[in-house]
Protein: Glyoxalase/fosfomycin resistance/dioxygenase domain-containing protein
Organism: Streptomyces nigrescens
Amino acid sequence: MKSPVIAPCLGVPDTQAACDYYERLGFTALPGTDDSDDDLRILLFDGAFAFMVYRDQHLRGWLPVLKDTPVGAFGMFYLAVEDFEAYVERIRPLVSVTKDVLTHHGQKLFYFTDLNGYVVGVTQRQTW
């Protein structure tokens, strides 16, 4: 698997809970390292890298500049899926809907907030 140009790493209070949550939404969680004491996890979607999750305490220790930063982020992440309608229908009962399906500039969007306060926008995968 090729690494992405930018690889988001989200600080979360409970790495296993975050992985369990995203696995219910169709992601696959993999260990981030061979070190059993390191709780970094890589999340894949449709077999491709999506992002990483890391226990917030470990992330703050690794980068002390983040020591006072709360979990959650100002901003959002986008998840591009092959079948927008089917995916949104499947995950709707599993997520906290932030903004229901709307069309903006001809593109359908659906937003949810995950269990740690991160906002994820779902969109139809496209080629530019």
